[in-house]
Amino acid sequence: ACMGERADAGPWDPHGYCGGASGASRGQELDARGAAISRALELDPDWEQAGVVKFAYRVQVRDRRAARDFAEDFVARNPKALDLAQRLAQLLAAQGDFEAAHRYFERILRHQPENSEILMTTALVRMQMEKWASARRLLLRHLRLNPDSDETRMRLARVASERHRFDEAAVINLHQEVEG
Predict the structure, then answer these.
(1) All residues at 6 or more sequence positions from 125 whose CB lies less than 8 Å from its CB, including other chains
(2) Cβ–Cβ < 8 Å for 84, 52
(3) Per residue in 79-93, pLDDT tens?
(4) Hey, which of 29, 36, 90, 137 has its CA 20 to 30 A from 8?
(5) Backbone region of residue 122 per phi and psi (left: phi > 0; alpha: psi in -120 to 50; beta: other values)
(6) Helix %, strand %, coil % for the chain, to 5?
(7) What pTM value is reported for the model?
(8) What is the tens place of the pLDDT at every residue in 100-111?
């Protein structure tokens, strides 16, 4: 992981640089943090945890365009960098770029089809895109994994309502009231 300094790390060990970056961030020494992460990625350009830290650093210094560019490039080179893909998708959704966010969430779902958090988040993005039928399918999958989720039932009722299926929305709401 990318936490704390390692006493045994030498100048060729990316983990040592990442550890230094972690320590520097605690002291708000952002320039030192950025340099340490850059050095770690020079030594191991495919190390996802260092990529996550660099992405977070870019977001922290409010350089979201550079964060996005870096993460998109990293994830393109490392298709299994799912943690960074998730953070990128969250940033894109927060910026209102739902189409791009959706592509990254879909990538994660292909690798982690039972990831409850990603199912819900992808459903919410689809709702923002007004893709009601596909949002419903994801919410139903989420409900199968989380049968006691009132939030999922509430979202399903909203989707039913948006699709003008008011009877379905009423049944979902009734079920929620009886169960709750």
Answers:
(1) 89, 93, 98, 101, 102, 105
(2) yes
(3) 999 999 999 999 999
(4) 29
(5) alpha
(6) 75, 0, 25
(7) 0.73
(8) 999 999 999 999
